[in-house]
TrEMBL record:
<keyword id="KW-0378">Hydrolase</keyword>
<dbReference type="InterPro" id="IPR023214">
    <property type="entry name" value="HAD_sf"/>
</dbReference>
<dbReference type="InterPro" id="IPR050155">
    <property type="entry name" value="HAD-like_hydrolase_sf"/>
</dbReference>
<dbReference type="InterPro" id="IPR036412">
    <property type="entry name" value="HAD-like_sf"/>
</dbReference>
<dbReference type="InterPro" id="IPR006439">
    <property type="entry name" value="HAD-SF_hydro_IA"/>
</dbReference>
<dbReference type="GO" id="GO:0006281">
    <property type="term" value="P:DNA repair"/>
</dbReference>
<protein>
    <submittedName>
        <fullName>Putative hydrolase of the HAD superfamily</fullName>
    </submittedName>
</protein>
<dbReference type="GO" id="GO:0008967">
    <property type="term" value="F:phosphoglycolate phosphatase activity"/>
</dbReference>
<dbReference type="Pfam" id="PF00702">
    <property type="entry name" value="Hydrolase"/>
</dbReference>
Length: 220
């Protein structure tokens, strides 16, 4: 029997991609760069490379930020890189918003008598601050790699979260926008999973696929 819904954060509850674009648009001109589509795409590509290394626990969160800036063309000492990134981070925090379908989904989950928690690949401090900014500080337990010692797509991240939550894998539903991190990995840990495919990018053969959190009620 289903007892809880384990939500991803970035791209699922919060508009990470929109915040990145808004932040880069505001920040890049302050460091002498143009915020055009090619530059933004390059930023995202570089970010994913180093976030993947962080998810594998090869580097810490601060170091992945520094490596991103180095690959982006900033050749400074680590402390200066931290200062530069702080400018981007301020704009990112200011731009971060919840998606407008979140209240409907949370109401559906509450109406079904289910518990809510968040499992997110991000630093504990940053991710909890995002939830607070969205008015969701009291949503439920929040687990990050800082708490668990491992990150999605390691199935152990899901098992660790559920152990702390007091649920068995078969009692939880994972909901997230990354098929590799939130769906396949969750199923490998024994959870049910729904893929939130907001932008229609697939995989199209996924049987439990929704285009909006407004459709989540049908999977509870």
């Amino acid at each position: 029997m289903l007892r809880g819904v384990l939500f991803d954060l970035d791209g699922t509850l919060g508009d990470h991609d929109g915040a990145v674009v808004a932040a880069l648009t505001a920040w890049l001109p302050t460091v002498g760069m143009v915020a055009d589509p090619a530059t933004i795409a390059r930023w995202n590509e570089i970010a994913e490379t180093h976030l993947a290394a962080w998810r594998r626990r090869e580097i810490d969160f601060r170091e992945q930020r520094r490596r991103r800036l180095r690959d982006f063309g900033f050749r400074y000492a680590p402390e200066r890189l931290d200062e530069i990134h702080a400018g981007f981070l301020t704009e990112y925090r200011n731009a971060y918003r919840a998606f407008d379908d979140v209240p409907v989904a949370l109401a559906a989950v509450a109406g079904a008598g289910l518990r809510v928690a968040v499992l997110t690949n991000g630093s504990a401090v940053q991710q909890r601050a995002k939830l607070a900014r969205m008015g969701l500080a009291d949503l439920g337990p929040v687990w990050t790699p800082d708490d668990l010692g491992m990150a999605k797509p390691d199935p152990g991240a899901f098992r660790g979260a559920l152990a702390r939550w007091g649920l068995r894998p078969g009692e939880a539903l994972s909901v997230g926008d990354r098929h590799d991190l939130d769906v396949r990995a969750a199923r490998a840990a024994g959870l049910r999973a729904v893929h939130l495919d907001r932008w229609g990018t697939g995989p199209y053969d996924e049987p439990h696929r929704i285009g909006s959190l407004r459709e989540l009620a049908g999977h509870l």
